[in-house]
């Protein structure tokens, strides 16, 4: 199975 | 008459106050039940998102950019996690894609669990049509990323796939039925 690199969310607000 | 009415009025006011307190408490309980009834303790989350159209519009209008799922767990005393979705995308996916992220949350038993979080994570958008062509992506946590460290706040920074699925693929396939999508993590 292929695994991708997780990327951090850019949004820092918390709805 | 004034003499007898005054205490009654005080009592009535007190009851009104108590009623609003109870209303708030009931609403809290409703929410708690909803979370409890949909919580999973086997490491698999199925997240049902209703009212896709309205929520997508709210994301486009930047009213509500993202939605959080109910929390789920790897076991009764395991890691606490949830999913976060941006129906109008985040980062590189902004305006073109649905972005899907995974969030490690602060849990009751973190002190007893190994850190950083190392479990493999699979993100999926369920196809509700007969062909069941679910869309998925999988990742192994990056041990150097702050997203997988032991949470110091209620939630770590979400990590996942900003380009999870393009909005055109999502909206032309059979991923939306009855204005509802299902995400599996």
How are the secondary structure elements laid out?
The complex is a heterodimer of chains A (15) and B (185).
Chain A: E1 7-8
Chain B: H1 2-38, E1 46-49, H2 52-60, E2 67-68, E3 72-73, E4 80-86, E5 97-105, E6 121-125, E7 135-139, E8 159-166, H3 167-172, E9 181-184
Antiparallel strand pairs in B: 1-9, 2-4, 3-4, 4-5, 5-8, 6-7, 6-9
Account of the protein in words:
The complex is a heterodimer of chains A (15) and B (185). In chain A, 0% of the residues lie in helices and 13% in strands. Chain A is an all-beta fold and 15 residues long. The termini of chain A are far apart. The mean pLDDT of chain A is 76. Chain B is α+β, with helices and mostly antiparallel strands and 185 residues long. In chain B, the strands form two sheets. In chain B, strands 2, 3, 4, 5 and 8 form a five-stranded antiparallel sheet that branches. In chain B, strand 3 (72-73) and strand 4 (80-86) form a beta hairpin. The radius of gyration of chain B is 22 Å and the shape is globular. Chains A and B meet through strand 1 of A and strand 2, strand 5, strand 7 and strand 8 of B.
């Amino acid at each position: 199975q292929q695994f991708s690199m997780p990327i951090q969310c850019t949004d820092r607000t918390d709805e | 008459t004034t003499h007898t009415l005054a205490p009654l009025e005080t009592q009535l006011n007190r009851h009104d106050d108590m009623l609003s307190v109870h209303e708030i408490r009931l609403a809290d309980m409703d929410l708690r039940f909803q979370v409890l009834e949909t919580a999973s303790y086997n490491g698999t989350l199925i997240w049902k998102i209703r009212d896709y159209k309205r929520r997508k519009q709210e994301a486009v209008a930047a009213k509500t950019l993202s939605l959080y799922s109910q929390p789920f767990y790897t076991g009764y005393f395991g890691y606490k996690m949830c999913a976060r979705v941006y129906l109008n995308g985040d980062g590189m996916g902004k305006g073109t894609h649905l972005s899907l992220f995974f969030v490690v949350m602060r849990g009751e038993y973190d002190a007893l669990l190994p850190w950083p979080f190392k479990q493999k994570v699979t993100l999926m958008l369920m196809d509700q049509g007969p062909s069941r062509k679910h869309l998925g992506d999988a990742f192994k946590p990056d041990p150097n990323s702050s997203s997988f460290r032991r949470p110091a706040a209620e939630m770590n920074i979400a990590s996942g796939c900003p380009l999870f699925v393009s909005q055109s693929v999502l909206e032309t396939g059979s991923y939306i039925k009855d204005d509802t999508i299902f995400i599996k993590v």
